[in-house]
Fold:
Amino acid sequence: MLSTRKAAFWLFLAVEQVLTAQIPLSPDYHEVSLDSYSHFGHDHGDPLQWDLDEPPAVNATGNLVFETANSLLQHWPSTRYRIGHTIVPGIVPVGTILYHGTITGPHMPTALDWVAVEPEHSMIFCNGTVESGYWHATLAVTRPMKVLYFDGNSAAKVSEGTMDTQDLVAWSEMKPEWFENELQRIQDLCKWGQQNGIDGFVRMEMNFEIMICNFTSHMELISFSNVESLRLGDDNPTDLPNDPNTMHQVFEMMHSASWRENYPGETRIILDYSGLISFYDNDLVPSLVPRHSESNTG
Ligand SMILES: *[C@@H]1O[C@H](CO)[C@@H](O)[C@H](O)[C@H]1NC(C)=O
Ligand SMILES: *[C@@H]1O[C@H](CO)[C@@H](O)[C@H](O)[C@H]1NC(C)=O
Ligand SMILES: *[C@@H]1O[C@H](CO)[C@@H](O)[C@H](O)[C@H]1NC(C)=O
Structure:
């Protein structure tokens, strides 16, 4: 009995000690622990003096780097701030299911080509002819696929900067006038990838997609389905389709993209944050900010 009470007493004391140790709210504690900020040697160093309503300094980029890292592989922030500034290596793990719409019949692509992470997205590329049929392939990753991710709305075919980071990797310079030159782009990216052990490139269009450098080295075919044509045509992509069936498919594509709007975003692509390179960081790379402040305000 006595020993139980003794134990309870010591337990009480121990808990009291732990709780005390976890409440660092005394003014003295702040003085001591925040002193280290003064080593940064500028006026705003001391958090006690922070004005949280003050915007970041004009040319500050730390806030942008932080926000970018917080938005990777998420559909909404990559749409809202569509011009990417970040490249990140990653892995598509074994067992991941990917989709490809073909236009030439039930044949695996022998050349460089694209896959989607959702069938609703790849289906719109099943637009062969009546003779060839409308074929949709489902593929499984069989070896860990090394990819490089371009953040932002990086597959948007516009000349205002969404493809700048790709241009720098493929061609060492930005070529906005080549924004529709997708064939040259995938060829040169894959050539660069071959030298650097990269098997594919992740981008975001209506949803996330992967440019595949070799369809047989890291994937196997699960099925080929002969589907009904969506009859999307080659008109202005913003024109809504006329027939209700196709309209439904287009909404389903938007719906499937909406699953990745916010955190955690697209989780099937595993990024290696330790390899993140930000084009906001002027110590590493020439900044893209001056070029983009022109196009963003324009
Ligand atoms: C911001 O950067 C621009 C362009 O490099 C420069 O002209 C300007 O002086 C900088 N402003 C500040 C406050 O550092
Ligand atoms: C199929 O769709 C793609 C992408 O929208 C387009 O580039 C191509 O011209 C279309 N092909 C046919 C046969 O309609
Ligand atoms: C693609 O990968 C397969 C299997 O690793 C290999 O046999 C083939 O040569 C590769 N194709 C190209 C074009 O490199």
Q: What stands out?
A: Residues 170 and 189 are 5 Å apart (CA to CA). The radius of gyration is 26 Å.
